[in-house]
Amino acid sequence: MFPALSVICFTLLSGAGYGLLILLCLDNAFDIGLALEGMRRNILAIVSLLLITIGLLCSTLHLANPKNAWRAFFRFRTSWLSREGVFAVLLYPFALFWLFMVWSNGVMPASGVEKLLAVVTFFLAVATLFSTGMIYACLKTIRQWNNALTPANYLLLGLMLGASIVLVGIDGGQGSTSAEKLVLGLTAIAALTKITYFYWIGKPAGPTINSALGFTRATVRLLDVGHGSGNFLTDEFGFELARTRLLWLRLVCIVCAFLLPILLLVSFDRSIFVNIAAMIFAFFGVFVERWLFFAEARHVVNLYHGAQRT
Amino acid sequence: MKLGLVIDLDTCVGCHACAVACKQWNSSGMSGPLTDYKPYGDEPAGVWFNRIRHYEVDEYPNSKTINAPMSCMHCEDAACVTVCPTGASYKREEDGIVLIDQDKCMGCNYCAWACPYGARELDRESGTMKKCTLCVDRIYDDNLPESERQPACVLTCPSNARFYGDFDDPDSVVSQKVRERGGYSMMPEAGYQPTNKYLPPRQKPLVEQHAEKAASTEKPLSQIQRWIAQQLTRQA
């Protein structure tokens, strides 16, 4: 699949935004030990909504005919893309009202309404992030996406990036020990599922050129593709990168997204620079991960263009 | 009704006439124009509803060239319709034709990702997805003589390799062909239950070669007699 920058930025930025919002709501409603309060929490909540909004705006750049984008909320019952849009829009009033309550409450203990709003926002953020993953995971045509680890990775990587922002936001404050533990724990789990995903998609599976054309008792090879230059199908689905380059990029992804942040946080004393460095590495690593997510996906239409298997 | 096509891979010669006829008819049809990008440039490209690819099956000397025209299969379980967020893609209840409402499409490409057959192509000019309509603006046109109320690709095929009809009617030409020739679906394991079917190449030559067969089963003596008779008649 062609790795479109608009979709990569959308999933990266709004994924981090939803992850951050999920953690803030959890901390507000159930007190997971981040001890965020006052201006710090307000600023982090605004950052999360900004990231979400920038990401969603990036996603509209992927549309060839954005004037009809408002229609995307109508097929909620069947389409994950539609569900993602509905959840994303539904989240705004709850999140903004929650932010208003939090802001006006100041350093006072959270009220019941505030906690209720935090729980609703939490569920909507999880639903949106899960739907983003399911947009890709529900496609039977791309075996690298059509598995349970796709939405799991989207959720975990979003939470991981959110936690790394929280750590920068706390900046040596009261809850920074638990925030550091949270970043380390989420990074380790996200790394495990992502590495498992890399193993899963390495297993040969799915249709072959033989079953695609119905000639299953003999070899089949492409003689001529029937068009002189590229077309929509080759531009969109024909993207291919050398195997060695892909492996290098996987290494870059694992080192930057998971290994370096963990090493930085474990081996250096707590300081804002270490936290910022860990966050930047995590964002860069997940950017590479998202790029690979598209670049490694092989659509079955490639079988008709001569690929022996996907 | 379950309208669709049957394509005979035995007789298709891979001439691309169906694709050209399709482009000609649909350029002014309900999804038209089928935009061409730089049609006179170095790398002409554009939107087509029907594409023909050429394959070699098996190894020499048993190899055979297969020309495979592919357009929308009008699947019974059409994933492109399921994933469409705007409702622009729809499958008609009455005849099973899968269509795109050009006024509703937002060009997100998601349906093309869901289609395993590469039947959907984005028109960069209009920003909307386009696909085979089974010539819906032709097959129901009362102004045309009844024999011409067929998709343009079927009408134009010079080797008579394309058939159009109702798969729900067991006596229609498409149902008969599928029954008699073992018509099959492409990539059935994807699970979309494509309506269009393909007829496999015939295993035997069409014309039985009776004369040769008879000669080989003759007794040696009568073979000699026939040879003598041939020599005599030639000299005479």
Task: Write a structural description.
The complex is a heterodimer of chains A (310) and B (236). Chain A is mostly helical and 310 residues long. Chain A has a single domain (5-304), classed as Formate dehydrogenase/DMSO reductase fold. Chain A is 68% helix and 2% strand. Chain A has helices at 5-30, 38-60, 80-105, 112-137, 149-170, 176-200, 209-213, 232-237, 243-267, 272-295, 301-304, and one strand at residues 220-224. Chain B has 236 residues and is of the alpha+beta class. Helix content of chain B is 26%, strand content 19%. A 3-stranded mixed beta sheet of chain B has the order 10-1-11. A two-stranded antiparallel ribbon of chain B has the order 2-3. Chain B has a two-stranded antiparallel ribbon with strand order 4-5. In chain B, strand 4 and strand 5 form a beta hairpin. The longest helix of chain B is centred in the C-terminal third of the chain and has 16 residues, at 220-235. Chain B is elongated and about 80 Å long. Chains A and B meet through helix 3, helix 7, strand 1, helix 8 and helix 11 of A and strand 3, strand 4, strand 5, helix 2 and helix 3 of B. Strand 1 (220-224) of chain A pairs antiparallel with strand 4 of chain B.
